[in-house]
């Protein structure tokens, strides 16, 4: 046999007294004339007896008892056995139900002239809801047996009962549909807010620059809750201040507030939420700011930004909701967003620390490699300076001077390109030139140095027409590429320079006859400070080549076959026709 469900526990609070009624009487009660008059008047006004003949109402008087129920008392509880029908004479009665999760649902509010408790008497099942007296109520009570006899013997009362049941069923249907619609709308709003929060969390994690991130977080917060503008303050614990960046002119300026001062300072100190619906009527608002800025503040939402440990790390101050004023949903959204924002800010701080540490490390590596690379040309200059000091020996002084000048020029170019690369400087002086003459002159300058290293230069200049480039930067590119090529051909070899065009770019190829580029290092060729097979060098040569080509809006490609040398292909844009 299936067990009956146990009724849910009533909410905590003052226990409600349940109405106790007399047991069913087999014989009609004798009523006083005054009591009979009161009951008769109440029955005539009740919808159950609408249209019923007066003689039938009079015959029914003795079957009713009259009771007064104090406000707040429980008349009957859900799942209790139904024994009586109640006709409401005075006061109001609340019919409600609790779900298995303890959520209260209001089914109906009854007024004088209504009746209730009939369903359990009709189907014999336990009560499906509970009835409570909202006010002090007066009711007429009819036992289950007397109710059934009354309905069976009087067609009009049965019709009234059916009519009332139909109305209540329609009302409950309408209430259910409306409640379903409200719940559906509420669920949709919650899903929309959740989707908005997910998208917002993606956006606030899209940057690591602190100034940029502050603007992104504030923009997301303002747009998500419909605020016109606002400020996001961060807490400086050491200074015991709030600080933020605000736009001023073409740049950003930092503003600072003492902890505890103003709305933001108060929220940072206490952690309270301040939601002002009329700024100028709230004594906490300082109108002087509006006077200085010309802005008119109406509504304000000021909330703490907490990290995942619940520690306040900043304050959102949002102004002027575009429609209405800031509500609980806005507060809930900003509270949820604040955790993601705090994590993003912490990530940005850590990233900046890592970048700063990496920069310091890079400076150290750069200094070390530059000093190492300087040794060779400086040693050469010293040797030839000593030769000059001893009288020049067998060598021509002009040749010695040329060698020293080339080494000094090499030092100067190395220092300049390293400084430019480190500073991110891109000072291009692009001009439209005839590529053939420029390369011929450049290769003529390189020829003596290559010859001294037993390297012959082969020229296949297929394209010699116009090209847009910076001649000085092209010279640096060639010094780096030819220097690398000479390093991988210590016993001499061939350096081939070709030119061509593909219609959009002028293509310059620099190929060597060295051992080629090992497969395992090709992916790292253009990384800063990466060197392979060289005792000396800054590791910046190819990185600088790549940057110069990108500055020209061109590109550099490397191609190699093991044992057959390497080719570096430069793409310079052709001038517009």
General description of the model:
By secondary structure, the protein is α+β, with helices and mostly antiparallel strands. The protein folds into three domains: about 35-180, Jelly Rolls; about 205-345, GAF domain (Beta-Lactamase, 2-Layer Sandwich); about 425-575, Histidine kinase-like ATPase, C-terminal domain (Heat Shock Protein 90). It is about 45% helix and about 25% strand. The chain is built from 13 helices and 21 strands. The chain has helices at about 35-45, 55-60, 120-125, 145-155, 155-205, 210-225, 260-270, 290-295, 330-390, 395-425, 435-450, 470-485, 540-550; strands spanning about 65-70, 75, 85-90, 95-100, 105-110, 115, 130-135, 135-145, 225-235, 240-250, 250-260, 275, 300-305, 310-320, 430-435, 455-460, 465-470, 495-500, 505-510, 555-560, 565-575. Helix 5 runs antiparallel to helix 6 (about 210-225), helix 11 packs parallel to helix 12 and helix 12 (about 470-485) runs antiparallel to helix 13 (about 540-550). The longest helix has about 60 residues, at about 330-390. It is elongated and about 150 Å long. The relative contact order is 0.06.
């Amino acid at each position: 046999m299936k067990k009956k469900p146990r009724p849910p526990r009533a909410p905590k609070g003052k226990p409600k007294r349940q109405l106790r009624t007399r047991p069913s009487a087999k014989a009609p009660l004798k009523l006083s004339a005054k009591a009979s008059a009161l009951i008769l008047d109440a029955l005539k006004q009740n919808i159950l007896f609408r249209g019923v003949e007066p003689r039938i109402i009079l015959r029914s008087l003795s079957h009713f008892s009259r009771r007064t129920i104090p406000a707040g008392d429980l008349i009957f509880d859900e799942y209790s056995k139904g024994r009586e029908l109640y006709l409401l004479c005075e006061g109001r009665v609340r019919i409600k139900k609790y779900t298995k999760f303890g959520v209260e649902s209001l089914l109906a509010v009854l007024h004088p002239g209504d009746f209730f408790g009939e369903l359990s008497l009709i189907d014999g099942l336990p009560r499906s809801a509970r009835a409570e007296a909202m006010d002090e109520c007066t009711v007429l009570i009819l036992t289950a047996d007397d109710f059934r006899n009354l309905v069976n013997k009087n067609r009009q009362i049965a019709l009234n009962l059916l009519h009332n049941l139909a109305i209540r069923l329609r009302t409950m249907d309408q209430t259910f549909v409306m409640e379903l619609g409200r719940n559906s709308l509420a669920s949709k709003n919650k899903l929309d807010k959740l989707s908005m929060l997910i998208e917002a969390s993606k956006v606030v994690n899209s940057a690591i620059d602190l100034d940029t991130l502050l603007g992104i977080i504030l923009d997301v917060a303002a747009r998500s809750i419909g605020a016109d503008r606002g400020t996001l303050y961060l807490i400086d614990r050491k200074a015991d201040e709030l600080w933020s960046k605000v736009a001023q002119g073409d740049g950003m300026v930092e503003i600072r507030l003492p902890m505890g001062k103003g709305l933001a300072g108060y929220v940072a100190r206490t952690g309270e939420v301040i939601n002002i619906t009329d700024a100028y009527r709230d004594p906490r608002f300082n109108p002087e700011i509006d006077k200085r800025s010309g802005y008119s503040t109406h509504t304000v939402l000021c909330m703490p930004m907490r990290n995942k440990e619940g520690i306040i790390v900043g304050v959102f101050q949002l102004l002027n909701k575009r429609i209405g004023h800031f509500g609980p949903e806005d507060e809930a959204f900003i509270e949820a967003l604040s955790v993601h924002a705090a994590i993003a800010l912490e990530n940005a701080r850590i990233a900046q620390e890592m970048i700063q540490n990496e920069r310091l490390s890079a400076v150290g590596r750069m200094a070390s490699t530059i000093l190492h690379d300087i040794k060779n040309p400086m040693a050469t200059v010293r040797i030839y300076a000593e030769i000059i000091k001893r009288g020049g020996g067998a060598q021509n002084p002009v040749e010695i001077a040329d060698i020293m000048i080339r080494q000094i020029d090499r030092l100067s170019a190395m220092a300049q390109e390293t400084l430019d690369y480190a500073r991110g400087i891109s000072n291009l002086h692009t001009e439209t030139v005839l590529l053939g003459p420029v390369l011929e002159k450049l290769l003529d300058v390189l020829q003596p140095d290559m010859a001294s290293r037993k390297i012959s230069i082969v020229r296949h200049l297929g394209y010699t027409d116009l090209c847009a480039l910076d001649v000085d930067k092209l010279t640096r590119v060639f010094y780096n590429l030819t220097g690398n090529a000479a390093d991988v051909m210590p016993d001499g070899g061939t350096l081939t320079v070709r030119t061509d065009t593909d219609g959009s770019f002028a293509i310059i190829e620099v190929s060597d006859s060295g051992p080629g580029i090992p497969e395992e290092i090709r992916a790292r060729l253009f990384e800063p400070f990466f060197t392979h097979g060289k005792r000396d060098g800054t590791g910046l040569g190819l990185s600088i080549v790549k940057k110069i080509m990108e500055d020209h809006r061109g590109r550099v490609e490397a191609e190699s076959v093991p044992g057959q040398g390497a080719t570096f292909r430069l793409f310079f844009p052709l001038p517009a026709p």
